[in-house]
Amino acid sequence: MEKPISVTTLFLDIGGVLLTNSWDREARKLAAREFNLDFDELDERHHLIYSSYEVGKVSLEEYLKLVVFYTVRDFSMDKFREFMFEYSKPYPEMIKLIYKLKDQFRLKVAAISNGGYELTKYRIKKFNLDNFIDFFISSSFVNYRKPDEEMYRIALDIAQVSREKVLYIEDRLIFIQIAGNLGITGIQHVDYRSTVAKLAHFGLQAD
Q1: Mean pLDDT over residues 98-112, rounded?
Q2: Coil vs helix vs strand at 157
Q3: 16 contacts: CB under 8 Å, gap ≥ 6
Q4: Fewer CB within 10 A of the terminal residue: the chain, N end or C end?
Q5: What does the pLDDT look like over 148-183, one tens digit per residue?
């Protein structure tokens, strides 16, 4: 059996690992029903502009003006923004697990995630992610987005860690494969139980 790496640093995705995704297709479907919007039109406009929002090129207000409020609505932007924010929910078991591992093994923890600026800031504060995550390499903070390899290079530079000491937890296999091209070891998060088993293989077993 291959000898496990000696891990000093965890790289984590946020959406799909610690929290639900912030503004995914399901959220947009729910919003269309809640606010009586044409989903196909909403989704088409979303795809045309959302990548610019995720890399910090436009604000949430600008995004919403182009995607929802390009015509008169019978609800306010604040109401719609509140709906977007409240869609985010935590995965408490995963948050507790990472918190314990960080404390027990004195790990550095960095979040590498795609997300618009306002949504990312809200999620960090709402779920106290800064209590156990040391660095946030968010697409809207650094003006790159996954799958760009630069996200991982920035994370390595900020954490000041060699890639051989990093374990990356991510729910999307393609991003693990991209990080793997840089020599970063990753595990795919499918559910809590299987992730606990995969972490144990690397010597990261919470007491």
Answers
A1: 97
A2: helix
A3: 170, 171, 172, 189
A4: N
A5: 999 999 999 999 999 999 999 999 999 999 999 999
Token duo for residue 178:
């991209």
Predicted TM-score (pTM) of this structure: 0.93
Query: Any idea where the domains of the chain sit in the sequence?
Result: 9-20+90-201, 25-86
DSSP letter assigned to residue 113: E
Distances in Å between the Cα of 102 and the Cα atoms of 18, 36, 131 are 14, 44, 11
Cα separation, 102 vs 178, whole angstroms: 25
- 205 and 199 in contact (C-beta within 8 Å)? yes
Give SS3 for 159. Answer: helix
| CATH number for domain 25-86, candidates 1.20.59.20, 1.10.260.40, 1.10.150.240, 3.20.20.70 | 1.10.150.240
pLDDT value at residue 100: 96
CATH code of 9-20+90-201, in short, is 3.40.50.1000
65 token code pair: 């003006």
Residue for token pair 């000898």 = 3
Q: Parallel, antiparallel, or unpaired for β 108-113 and 9-12?
A: parallel
